[in-house]
Amino acid sequence: MTKAEYTELKKLIPNKNIVIVTHKNPDGDAIGSSLALYGYLKNFTEQVSVVVPNDFPEFLKWMPGADEIIIFEEKKESVSQILLQAEIIFTLDFNHYSRTGDEMQAVLSQTSCLKMMIDHHQQPDDYATYTYSDTGMSSTAQMVYNFIEAMDDLSLIDKDIATNIYTGIMTDTGSFRFRSTTETTHRIVAFLIEKGADNTEIHENVFDRNSYHRMQLLATALKNLVVLPHFRTAYITLSQKELEKNHFKKGDYEGFVNHALSVNNVILACLFVESTEEKMVKISFRSKGSFSVNEFARNHFSGGGHTNAAGGKSFDTLTDTVKKFITTLDLYKTQLNG
User: Fold this and answer.
1) Is the distance from CB of 36 to CB of 168 less than 8 angstroms?
2) What's 212-337's CATH class?
3) pLDDT in tens, 125-168
4) Which of 301, 315, 293, 320 is nearest to 121 (CA)?
5) Contact 139/169 with Cβ under 8 angstroms?
6) What is the pLDDT of residues 295-309, one digit of tens each?
7) How far is C-alpha 206 from the geometric centre of its chain's CA atoms?
8) Rounded CA gap, 32 and 34, in Å?
9) What is the fold, at CATH topology level, of the domain defined by 3-207?
10) Environment class of residue 10 by beta-carbon count within 10 Å: exposed (0-12), middle (13-18) or buried (19+)?
11) pTM of the predicted model, to two decimals?
C-alpha cells in the first residue's frame, strides 16, 4: 500500500462500523493479529467486532480481548447480520474467502462494503479494496504492527496490543526460529517488550500449560511417527478414535508436526488428523530449506500456505490419504534428496 492509501484509510475509519475477520481454525497469529488490530481501532470507533468462523484453542483464551471474540458457528444468524451491516471489513491472516468455511464464505461474498486484507500467504485473491500482502513477513501480527506504524500511530500501542502482537509473532515463527524471523522482527519484539509485553508470561501461557490429556495425545502421536529415510520424510497420523480416547480439545495437536520435522535428516514432515465430524483428513505440512510445501499442498491436497509451512485436506479415508501421500512422494524424490 502507498502512503496516500494509508492516509485515505485513516480518514475513513473514525466512527465506522468495523468487523475484523480471520480464518477457520484460528491459530495464534490469527487471534493475535485480530485482537491487536481490534485494540488499535477502538481508539477511533466504538463499533469494532472480531469474528472467527469457529472456536479457537484454550491456550489462546487468556489473551487481552479474547472474551470479546464472536464465534460465527455458535451464532450464525446474528453474526451474519454483523457482517452484512459492516461499513469496513478487515480480513486477517487469509487471502481467500474459502479459508473461512463454506457458510461464512457465502455471507462474506454477499457483503459490499470497503474491505482491507492484511495477510502474508501466497497467491492472494483480489476481493479487497486495500491489500497489504507480503509473503516475506514472519506473521500477520508483524504486519499489523507495520500497519499501525504506517498510520503514524505507534504511540497508541499499549500493553494489551503489544501482548497480542508478540503472541502472534511468537507462535507463527516457532518461537522466533523460522527463517522468516528477521532482524526487523527482533527490533519489533524489543519495542513490544518495552511497551509491556511480558515475554516469559506469554510463552508460559501458550506452551507451558499442557493438560494431562494433551500430553497423552502427544505420546500417541509420537508412537505413530513413521520415518521414510529414502524420501527424507516423516509423518504422524491421529485417528478420530485416538483423539476421542485422549479427550481431544481444539488446539491439542498444535505443533505436533514439528516433532516429525525434528527427526535427523528429515526435511519434509506431515501430520494427518482424521475428523469424522468434518468428513475429512486435515493435513499439516512443514519443511526445511527450499522444498515448498505450499506447492506440494496446492498440487495434491487442496491446500497451500508458505514455502515451509502449509495446510491441506483430503476427503479419502485416513489410510488412503497416507497411501496417496507416499505415492506422491515418488514425484519429488529428486528434490527431497537433492
Assistant:
1) yes
2) alpha beta
3) 999 999 999 999 999 999 999 999 999 999 999 999 999 999 99
4) 293
5) yes
6) 999 999 999 888 999
7) 15
8) 6
9) inorganic pyrophosphatase (n-terminal core) (3.90.1640)
10) middle
11) 0.90
